[in-house]
Amino acid sequence: MAATIAPITGILRRGLVLDLSTAFGLGTTFGYLWWYGYHLPRVRARDNYYARLEAERAAGRA
């Protein structure tokens, strides 16, 4: 009995490479967007708030 179905290893390998490269590419892109678009501005705003609060407290004590 001859095999009538072609092996699918090449298709799976190509699909796996495409899926992994897409996942890593999109993950890296959205990671950078979150880090520089949301996280760093929020941390900067928090640090500025506490620096201003500390400056006001220091001015009040002097």
UniProtKB/TrEMBL annotation:
Keywords: Membrane, Mitochondrion, Mitochondrion inner membrane, Oxidoreductase, Transmembrane, Transmembrane helix. One of its GO terms (cellular component) is mitochondrial inner membrane. Its main location: mitochondrion. It is a single-pass membrane protein. One of its GO terms (biological process) is mitochondrial electron transport, cytochrome c to oxygen. It comes from the Eukaryota. Component of the cytochrome c oxidase, the last enzyme in the mitochondrial electron transport chain which drives oxidative phosphorylation. This is Cytochrome c oxidase subunit 9, mitochondrial.
